[in-house]
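Meet my pick.
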Amino acid sequence: MLLYLVRHGIAIDREDPNCPVEAERHLTPKGVERTREVASGLAAMGIKPRAALSSPYLRALQTAEIVCEALGISPAKLKRTPALLPEAAVAELFRELKKAHAEEVICFGHAPNMDLVIALAVGSAHPVTELKKAGVACVELPSPAPGHGTLQWVLTPKILRKVE
């Protein structure tokens, strides 16, 4: 299984007086633009996930919708799951991955959870990555279970925006 982990794009700052409640924090115009550029880079790389999972928080869903559109994934295939919420137990995602029954899955979530998922996937007790906003990592898993994965790559938004 190839597991793509995407941290949400740039969202409205918590300190902004117009900031809504945490679950409704949205991407900024710059966040939308940068995420579209990242999505174009992923599409140019030819990744073809068969399943897409997202945190139900708005900023992650917006990121997921932008990327899924660029990758040709139907919005109907995007599944919201509490396993990708910021406070979710990292092991919960692996239960969701088993249910996905797909060789390639893309997930949209938050820091530090995305980095903790990567660590658990590769069998590390501590994070081995620090995804930037709209950053993406790819982990190859022999099965949808933690501990035996191989980190294939980590790409920053800056690099992905340059992929054509």
